[in-house]
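Hi there,

I know you've been waiting on this one. I reran it after we fixed the sequence typo, so this is the corrected version. Both the input and the resulting structure follow.
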Amino acid sequence: MPQDMPPEIHPYPRGMGRPLTKPRPKQGARIAAFRRAAGLSQAELADAVGVQQQTIAFWELSDKPPRSDVLPKMAKALGVRVEDLLGDTPVGAVRKPGPAGKLQKALELAQKLPKRQQELVLQFVETLVSQRKKAS
């Protein structure tokens, strides 16, 4: 990085990876699909699992499954079972045990707000949902 460039400016913005030149192997594609379905970036999943982002990228580009000590953490972060990560069931057919991702994290943080602010968040969400229902 050039010396005159501030450290907060990076040549590649976060979340902007280079395009793949070959198709992902089956195992890596499953992990990537579950991660995207959970609304997580590679860096966010890496933080949740306790590995580096490059490790997540490797697993998504490889046909090798994650280490056995990481699989339960990854499954929990993605809101799926370990069997779902390793299985053959199409990603869209897997029923998640509960919500995961950015929305769930935001709602968990909102639970820590004072009651009045929680009511405002709830009112906002309910308004958005009712508008969506009317539009459909």
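Quick highlight: The two ends are 49 Å apart (CA to CA).

Best,
R. S.
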